[in-house]
Amino acid sequence: MRVAVVGTGAIGVSWAAHFLAHGLDVVATDPAPGAEERLRAGVAEIGADAARLSFTTDAGEAAAAADFVQENAPEREDVKHALFAVLDAAARPDVVLASSSSGMLPTAIATACTAHPERVVVGHPFHPPHLVPLVEVVPGERTSEAAVDAAMAFYTGVGKKPIRLRQELPGHIANRLQAALWREAYSLVDRGVASVADIDAAISHGPGLRWAVLGPFANQHLSGGPGGIAHVLEHLGPPTEAWWRDLGHPTMTPELERKIVEGVDEELAGVDPAALARYRDTVVRAVLAAKERTP
């Protein structure tokens, strides 16, 4: 099977490495000068074998040769429309066109596809795709069930954990959940309740550990003891509603931006960002390995 990776920035490089590691042929495309060299260097750094990797600057050529298309262009509607018009014209009618878009709606993306808009989906990964299993599959108004089923099967076949959205929403699911957490984290910083470092510690040494194993509903169910989530909702439902009403509504002012940037600089003073990313990836791999070993 051959996958076209369209756009070879950080997400595209990671996708290419993931597909290669799962035994697929990859034809990558990007019009930027030096894109192929950066792609091959990135794939090598991740540790994937590039023997089955080819490159072209022609997106239509890549799509015409592919059995599945994973697009990773900039998050701009004009760019997506111009690109999907090319992909739609070039790819075989049965080939799914999946966008890695983190927030755009597939219905809007598919308006550029005059031939086969029914095969357009969002296939949103979580960074980095070669490591984090989640993929959000989002159909648009004209997407066929066959395209959704094909995308779900494809991602499952390359070791991902795809979930299907039943409704289009800006930001899909996981980014909206993150945005809810970020909103309150930014508000706490803005109000002087806690430092950036303490908020990071509160998550990474607290609920984040549980969230890496089970989701919010399953964890809440366990916290209810024998009564499960029904007990939690009965006893903590009213206080939770009060907390919701007290959550902040921050505005991204220059002052708040300054507080956040200074807080991160203070928290990570002297820490090499590349080393920090390697630490994160090593721990994530260990967590994933532990989950695989544990029934």
UniProtKB/TrEMBL annotation:
Pathway(s) per entry: Lipid metabolism; butanoate metabolism
Pfam families hit by this protein: 3HCDH (PF00725), 3HCDH_N (PF02737)
Presence of the UniProt keyword Oxidoreductase in the record: yes
Stretches assigned to the 3-hydroxyacyl-CoA dehydrogenase C-terminal domain: 171-239
Residue ranges of domain 3-hydroxyacyl-CoA dehydrogenase NAD binding in the record: 3-166
Keyword Signal: no
Gene3D superfamilies the UniProt entry points to: N-(1-d-carboxylethyl)-l-norvaline Dehydrogenase, domain 2, NAD(P)-binding Rossmann-like Domain
GO molecular function: NAD+ binding; oxidoreductase activity, acting on the CH-OH group of donors, NAD or NADP as acceptor
Family according to the record: Belongs to the 3-hydroxyacyl-CoA dehydrogenase family.
The protein's name: 3-hydroxyacyl-CoA dehydrogenase
Organism: Pseudonocardia broussonetiae
